[in-house]
Amino acid sequence: MFFFTQRHAFHLVDPSIMPLLSSISCLVTTLGAVLYFHGFVAGLNVQLFGLFSILTCMFFWWRDVVREGTLEGCHTNIVQLGLRYGMILFIVSEIMFFFAFFWAFFAASIAPTIEIGNVWPPKGIEAFNPFEIPLVNTLILLCSGSTITYSHHSITAGNKKEAVFGLVLTVLLAVIFTCFQAFEYVSAPFAISDGIFGSTFYLATGFHGFHVFVGTIFLVVCLIRLLSNHFTIEHHFGFEAAAFYWHFVDIVWLFLYVAVYFWGGN
């Protein structure tokens, strides 16, 4: 009988169909959004199906990663270091993603064209008051950044009870933020089809809201794992990744508040 001994600390990932399915789901979601924006009846259904497919892929893919890191012990120290680098690079790519929206917004607002009356906001657009719901949401996200940091420090200190408390508060604040943004959209005096202002506003804040939604799922998964004793003082990269992502969401919102709501809306 021959026994195989692994002579390195790296993790050779098993073949998986999840990357392919996730890519197809993103394509279907984008296609559905384009159809919906152009008034096709089935566009919304296609988009919702794509979103459901993305969430399904997230569940099974994250399940596999959790199993590899928790039950199979594949996430050695050097593997965790590689995962941290990967998360940092992913966040950098997300920064570039939002950079495009800010570029479009500033290109239209700094030098408004004659088609929109040479003024910003364009004539006929009533922008949001930055000192109402947008300011409340800013305070909520800043508080959520503090609570998740508190939870992280509690994990590193071996205090599970305080870590759970901080993470639950973070999830609640995230849900409250999403509810306020949904209320803002429902009561908005302009739509995404109302020229360059509506397009840039809803694309920037809408994609941020989607990132908040994904981040909330990320935090809920971490909460379940924390209650299941998956995290230790030395081994809690899953939580660190969620914290990195959530701090990124906080920072992007600060730029959105200052640029889009405060400066661009007056």
UniProtKB/TrEMBL annotation:
Cited CDD domains: Cyt_c_Oxidase_III
Protein localization: Membrane
Recorded topology in the membrane: Multi-pass membrane protein
TM region positions: 20-38, 44-62, 83-111, 163-183, 203-224, 244-264
GO molecular function: cytochrome-c oxidase activity
Gene3D superfamilies: 1.10.287.70, Cytochrome c oxidase, subunit III, four-helix bundle
Designated name of the protein: Cytochrome c oxidase subunit 3
Pfam families attached to this UniProt entry: COX3
Native source organism of the sequence: Phaeocystis globosa
Function: Component of the cytochrome c oxidase, the last enzyme in the mitochondrial electron transport chain which drives oxidative phosphorylation. The respiratory chain contains 3 multisubunit complexes succinate dehydrogenase (complex II, CII), ubiquinol-cytochrome c oxidoreductase (cytochrome b-c1 complex, complex III, CIII) and cytochrome c oxidase (complex IV, CIV), that cooperate to transfer electrons derived from NADH and succinate to molecular oxygen, creating an electrochemical gradient over the inner membrane that drives transmembrane transport and the ATP synthase.
GO process annotations (BP): mitochondrial electron transport, cytochrome c to oxygen
Keywords from the UniProt entry: Membrane, Mitochondrion, Translocase, Transmembrane, Transmembrane helix
InterPro entries: Cyt_c/ubiquinol_Oxase_su3, Cyt_c_oxase_su3_dom, Cyt_c_oxidase-like_su3, Cyt_c_oxidase_su3-like_sf, Cyt_c_oxidase_su3_a-hlx
Chain ranges of the Heme-copper oxidase subunit III family profile domain: 6-265
Family the UniProt entry places it in: Belongs to the cytochrome c oxidase subunit 3 family.
A single Gene Ontology CC term: membrane
